[in-house]
Design brief:
The complex is a heterodimer of chains A (about 525) and B (about 170). With about 525 residues, chain A is α/β, with parallel strands linked by helices. Chain A is about 40% helix and about 15% strand. Chain A has helices at about 10-15, 15-30, 70-75, 95-100, 115-120, 125-135, 135-145, 160-170, 190-195, 200-210, 225-240, 270-280, 310-320, 320-325, 360-365, 400-405, 425-440, 445-460, 465-485, 485-490, 495-500, 510-515, and strands spanning about 1-5, 35-40, 50-55, 60-65, 90, 175-180, 215-220, 255-260, 305, 330, 335, 335-345, 350-355, 375-380, 390, 415-420. In chain A, the strands form 4 sheets. Chain A has a 5-stranded mixed sheet, with helices on one face. Chain A has a 5-stranded mixed sheet with strand order 13-12-16-14-15. Chain B has 7 helices and 4 strands. Chain B is of the alpha+beta class and about 170 residues long. Classes of the chains: A alpha/beta (about 525), B alpha+beta (about 170). The structure holds flavin mononucleotide (FMN), iron/sulfur cluster and FE2/S2 (inorganic) cluster (FES). The site of iron/sulfur cluster (SF4) has 14 residues of chain A, from helix 18 and helix 20. The site of flavin mononucleotide has 21 residues of chain A, from strand 9 and helix 20.
């Protein structure tokens, strides 16, 4: 029997994993080989997908990127024994692209069978929850505080402090809500974890629930993520069956259960108060803060709202200790960051690294330069509300404070690379267009400002009264920054302003025409 | 006085089935915050949120029609009319732009002579915009009837579309 591991992460599927599976089955039956295929998530090297692994006495040996047409040749090369082949990458964890990473949250992703509780257990799963069940809520919160964990959804708020607010609130009912709306372009870490290691998220949310005294959880994710929805729902059923969710979590006598809810194509529903409105069945309009969701959240009850990766970091922290986690990273950015390398890059994918590595290492060492082979020109870090950086800023360390000082933000860790064919004036216009399309409409600076921004950009791009219109643009950016109710309108000036600041030549139509 | 213009009256939803709608609504109405799950389930069945269902949803969830309509219209996903037989969601966001998505989608829409959200004349294909599918490391990306595809180019896209329109 030959055991094969083949990802069914959406990115692997997008690159032909199903065709590879069919070819494997056909070739195996032709050769009389009995196949045992385990469908995993991805390890994150999207550039190697589909990354097929075969179990051998020397461990799992990877081959990738495999196309259906490669399969017969792989068998000829001795696939069952891990034989030599041009696509052979060896043991994935020893490949430099993986070996140079610090896999804490994503240690199991791409390795385990995401529907098997037993496999999760065998890889250290539910150890953190078991520890938490033996601790007081205060002790759990203190551990999370001590780890230095900050929210991975973008704002970087200390997770332990948020949990403590909910813990101390008195109410007949409390909620734990996972923000899995991951709308930022260039990001896919939440999706990858939900598809590849869903029990890790379940465990993190259960620990939060035990800490704050919540009994019900929701995972709010996107309709664009049908595979993650299916994986999460299957894992919840399995976890319930194994006694890790329900009336008696891990035999503790404590109750906690959860369900998955699906959004409906609105970027703003990633903003936590809009998300809560959406979960309540309303329009996803942003709520004014205060009250904080931790005090008055879902259905008016105290609610923990955290990103997928914030929750998913907690099982490791509980299992290995707060100090161990805080031992990674730098300054006030502790632990690891899931960096997602996207766009025009040769080796795209997810790399988990301690905070503090320079952006250049990510783009050049891991990313391997542009996919097109043309010169690098710009990188947008932190999604559609993040800054465009030029070459000169590539030595910026990847930590919250350093990025803020450089006029940008880390956000959810997306790194989108552009080659020299990019037109930053066009990207600036797109930032306004996106804001106009996704604005919840509650406040004027965002709702009207974004539309004005598109118009101004159109005039600038057409070379109409450039000085006057650039001045109008400046005023508009200032107004949106100062007067928007939430970061949608408030941060749209970041991509626009950074494009203008670092790539002024793209806004200077006269100079471009003359050149 | 002339009769009110026909445009003001929404067309009946194709395959509208009131009994089925009652069943779908009842199956989800008991959830906390049931509105989105109900609307998703209706769209799953009918391809859109039938305007005929709006008062029924309102009644079941104890909301006003205006509230339900407000929810339906807030979210990009909910359609007013059923799509073509196949739905292609093409990503228009930054990571895909970095790999040429703008030209790719402009080319396709031009060749099909449809606009975003439009359906080909043969009723076979609706092309909808998406803003990130989480496939940003294998851009440009799309979902074809919910199945992910990556590293698209014009030839691959045309092939896929051709196949879908045949089926
Ligand atoms: C426009 C907008 C979109 C957002 N989208 C997301 C998102 O997709 N996922 C997310 O976790 N946080 C998102 N946030 C941040 C949330 O409002 C909130 O800070 C986060 O869910 C808190 O969890 P954390 O502390 O674990 O990061 C968004 C914020 C804004 C203003
Ligand atoms: S800034 Fe935009 S998205 Fe945020 S509350 Fe105002 S209108 Fe809504
Ligand atoms: S930007 Fe297109 S899939 Fe993410």
């Amino acid at each position: 029997m030959m055991r094969i591991y083949l990802p069914q992460d959406a990115a692997a599927l997008a690159l032909g994993a199903e065709a590879v599976l069919r070819a494997l089955q056909a070739e195996a039956s032709r050769r009389g080989v009995v196949l045992d295929v385990v469908r995993t998530g991805t390890r994150g090297a999207v550039w190697l997908e589909p990354l097929l692994e075969v179990e051998t006495p020397e461990g799992r040996i990877g081959y990738g990127p495999v196309k259906a047409g490669d399969v017969a040749g792989l068998f000829d090369a001795g696939l069952p024994e891990g034989g030599a082949h041009a696509l052979r990458v060896g043991r994935p964890e020893e490949h430099p692209w993986f070996a140079g990473q610090t896999r804490l949250t994503f240690a199991r992703c791409g390795v385990v069978d995401p529907v098997s509780v037993a496999d999760y257990r065998a890889h250290g799963g539910f150890v953190g929850l078991e520890k938490a069940l033996a601790m007081s809520g205060e002790a759990i919160v203190d551990t999370v505080k001590l780890s230095g964990l900050r929210g991975r959804g973008g704002a970087g708020f200390p997770t332990g402090i948020k949990w403590n607010t909910v813990r101390l609130a008195s109410a007949d009912r409390k909620y734990v809500v996972c923000n899995a709306d991951e709308g930022d372009s260039g990001t896919f870490a939440d999706r990858m974890l939900m598809e590849g290691d869903p029990f890790c998220l379940i465990e993190g949310m259960a620990i939060a629930a035990i800490a704050v005294g919540a009994t019900k959880g929701f995972i709010y994710t996107r309709s664009e993520y049908p595979h993650a929805v299916r994986a999460m729902r299957a894992a919840i059923v399995a976890a319930r069956r194994a006694g890790w969710l329900g009336d008696n979590v891990g035999g503790s006598g404590r109750a906690f259960d959860m369900e998955v809810r699906v959004g409906a194509g609105a970027y703003i529903c990633g903003e936590e108060t809009s998300l809560l409105n959406s979960l309540e069945g309303k329009r996803g309009v942003v709520r004014a803060k205060p009250p904080l969701p931790a005090v008055e959240g879902l259905f008016g009850k105290p609610t923990v709202v955290n990103n997928v990766l914030s929750f998913a970091a907690v099982p490791w922290i509980m299992a290995h200790g707060a100090e161990a986690y805080a031992g990674f990273g730098t300054g006030r950015s502790l632990g690891t960051l899931a960096v997602q390398i996207a766009g025009n890059v040769r080796r795209g994918g997810l790399v988990e690294l301690p905070f503090g590595l320079p952006l250049r290492a990510v783009i050049e060492d891991w990313g391997g330069g542009t996919a097109s082979g043309r010169p690098f020109r710009a990188v947008q870090v932190g999604g559609p509300l993040g800054a465009y950086f030029p070459e000169a800023l590539l030595d910026t360390p990847m930590d919250y404070e350093a990025f803020a000082r450089a006029g940008g933000l880390l956000g959810h860790g997306g790194v989108t690379v552009f080659d020299d064919s990019v037109d930053l004036a066009r990207q600036a216009r797109f930032a306004f267009e996106f804001c106009a399309g996704e604005s919840c409409g509650k406040c004027t600076p965002c709702r009207i400002g974004a539309v004005r921004g598109m118009e101004v950009m159109d005039r600038i791009k057409a070379g109409v009264q450039p000085e006057k219109n650039l001045a109008v643009l400046d005023d508009l950016l200032e107004l949106m920054t100062d007067a928007s109710l939430c970061a949608m309108g408030g941060l749209t000036p970041i991509p626009v302003g950074s494009a203008l600041k670092h790539f002024p030549e793209d806004f200077d139509v006269a100079a471009r025409a003359a050149a | 006085m002339s009769a009110p213009s026909a445009e003001l009256r929404p067309l009946p939803t194709p395959h509208w089935d009131e009994a089925l709608a009652v069943e779908i609504i009842a199956a989800h109405a008991g959830l906390e915050g049931a509105c989105l799950p109900v609307l998703h389930a209706l769209q799953e069945e009918f391809g859109c949120v039938p305007h005929e269902a709006v008062p029924m949803v309102a009644e079941a969830l104890n909301l006003s029609r205006a509230e339900v309509h407000g929810v339906v219209s807030f979210y990009h996903d909910f359609r007013a009319a059923p799509p073509g037989r196949h739905v292609l969601k093409l990503c228009r966001a930054e990571a895909c732009q970095a790999m040429g998505a703008d030209a790719l989608s402009a080319g396709l829409l031009g060749r099909l002579t449809v606009e975003w959200g439009g359906t080909t004349a043969d009723g076979r294909l609706t092309v909808e915009p998406a803003f990130c599918l989480g496939l940003c490391a294998c851009a440009p990306a799309a979902l074809m009837d919910g199945e992910p595809v990556g590293r698209l180019d014009a030839a691959a896209l045309d092939n896929m579309v051709l196949e879908a329109r045949r089926a």
